[in-house]
């Protein structure tokens, strides 16, 4: 089975917002991603709406036909309401601090276990699959399992950062985290700073990876390679490492 590719289109919204009009058209880009082979669309609305706007989520939900994954901070009631109103295939809970440039850590699932358990049940009660964003630390995977979540998403920034120094060493905590997740019956996603260079090795070394969400690097690659060709190349990396 090959890992699914969900394209994160935050950066398309960043470009659109820079001029105030509707160019590029976010919904059209999402539909194009799907037509070019993407198996899901990911967005991460942030409270300042600096890229994805809350209205975008409604517009995308009405248009797309692949798996819709909404990421964000469930401590914001506006985010919870948005997700419940749109019922995506998956919500990914990310512990964003205020003013963060991008996501930079996973949940402390031990400290926040009761809170997360409550949020997981709110979303699952609405028929939405839940994934919890975590660092590749075995105790955090254990804590996630105790919340009743369906999946975890491994935060891959450290892997991407350390890839060129020693990819074998960089991937070790992720492979161990994946094995623990499987033992605990958790589905496994991953994302953040994955790119055309580091993706295949990650997917080969991390067993049972169900889905990756990739945005920043993929949209940058599309400037040079074109969106269709870029998506095909990412899919090729994943299919080469099918499990
Ligand atoms: C959870 C995660 O790793 C990504 O969603 C990342 O946070 C992208 O968000 P930005 O596009 O705002 O950097
Ligand atoms: N969940 C990770 C994601 O959606 C995209 O992260 P990035 O590729 O923009 O770093």
Question: Secondary-structure map with pairings?
Answer:
Elements: E1 4-8, H1 10-17, H2 26-35, E2 40-43, H3 54-63, E3 67-72, H4 77-86, E4 90-93, H5 113-125, E5 129-134, H6 138-145, E6 151-155, H7 157-162, H8 167-183, E7 187-191, H9 199-205, E8 211-214, H10 216-225, H11 227-240
Parallel strand pairs: 1-2, 1-8, 2-3, 3-4, 4-5, 5-6, 6-7, 7-8
Helix pairs in contact: 2-3, 6-8, 9-11, 10-11
Describe the structure.
By secondary structure, this protein is α/β, with parallel strands linked by helices. It has one domain (4-240): Aldolase class I (TIM Barrel). 47% of the residues lie in helices and 16% in strands. Strand 3, helix 4 and strand 4 form a beta-alpha-beta unit. It is globular. Catalyzes the complicated ring closure reaction between the two acyclic compounds 1-deoxy-D-xylulose-5-phosphate (DXP) and 3-amino-2-oxopropyl phosphate (1-amino-acetone-3-phosphate or AAP) to form pyridoxine 5'-phosphate (PNP) and inorganic phosphate. It is found in: Cytoplasm.
Main β-sheet description: 8 strands, parallel, barrel
What ions, cofactors and ligands are bound? 1-deoxy-D-xylulose-5-phosphate, the ligand NCC(=O)COP(=O)(O)O
Structural class: alpha/beta
Strand order of the largest sheet: 1-2-3-4-5-6-7-8
CATH class: Alpha Beta
Structurally, the number of domains stands at 1
Instruction: Please name the CATH topology.
Output: TIM Barrel
* Weakly predicted, low-confidence segments: none
Mean pLDDT: 97
Silhouette: globular
DSSP summary, beta strand count: 8
Assigned CATH superfamily: Aldolase class I
Helix content: 40-55%
Strand content: 15-25%
**Rg, alpha carbons:** 17 Å
Tally of DSSP helical segments: 11
Instruction: Give the ordered list of helices and strands.
Output: EHHEHEHEHEHEHHEHEHH
Named at the architecture level, the CATH assignment is Alpha-Beta Barrel
**Termini separation (Å)?**
5 Å
